[in-house]
Design a protein that fits this description.
The chain is an all-alpha fold. It has 2 domains: 115 residues, no CATH class; 52 residues. Helices cover 77% and strands 0% of the residues. The protein is built from 8 helices and no strands. Helix 1 packs antiparallel against helix 2 and helix 3 packs across helix 4. The longest helix has 34 residues. The chain starts with a helix and ends with a helix. 11% of the residues are buried.
Length: 176
């Protein structure tokens, strides 16, 4: 089985992790895949078992103590440290937590971008509404009494287009 097929199988298994023993099994598979990949990258996949064991031992020791200087690799570093130390389920649980955290952060960023785009889209109308409401506050005394805010909304629509009277009426309801 080549590395790509093994990786695809592990990723499918990752989605099925429900119990701690599933995470342990998946972690062992992932570590085995990393070892096999390392042997291939070293050109030692056809070497004797003794040579392979020495290469794996060296890699394991390095992985246990690896300390990434790049903050974006901190989760990966911790996963490698845990896999190399035989803490397979801890590594898988960390991977799961990391994925969920990144998904949540992405959702927040998308919402923020959408909100900013929406504000920019309505920037002109918001400026018009601001001017209109400021004008209303200066002239509020003209609209005292019954139906005053409704009359004001009609006047604002005429004086400050393209905002509709119903929109102005909603905003005027909020003003005491």
């Amino acid at each position: 089985m080549d590395i790509q097929n093994l990786l695809n199988k592990i990723l499918k298994d990752f989605e099925k992790v429900e119990r701690p023993e599933d995470a342990e099994r998946l972690g062992k598979k992932a570590w085995g895949m990393i070892q096999q990949h390392h042997l291939v990258m070293c050109g030692a996949n056809k070497a004797s078992q003794t040579v392979k064991n020495k290469i794996i031992e060296r890699m394991t020791n390095k992985a246990k103590t690896w300390d990434a200087d790049d903050a974006s690799l901190s989760s990966v570093q911790k996963m490698f440290n845990r896999l190399a130390s035989g803490r397979y389920s801890d590594a898988v649980n960390l991977a799961d937590s990391s994925i969920k955290t990144k998904e949540a952060a992405a959702k927040i960023a998308l919402k923020k971008n959408a909100r900013n785009a929406n504000e920019k889209k309505h920037e002109k109308n918001n400026a018009i509404k601001e001017k209109a409401l400021a004008w209303y506050l200066e002239n509020k005394s003209k609209y005292e009494g019954r139906g005053g805010k409704q009359r004001a909304a009609i006047d604002l629509e005429e004086k400050f287009p393209p905002i509709k009277q119903t929109t102005y009426a909603q905003h005027l309801k909020k003003i005491k």
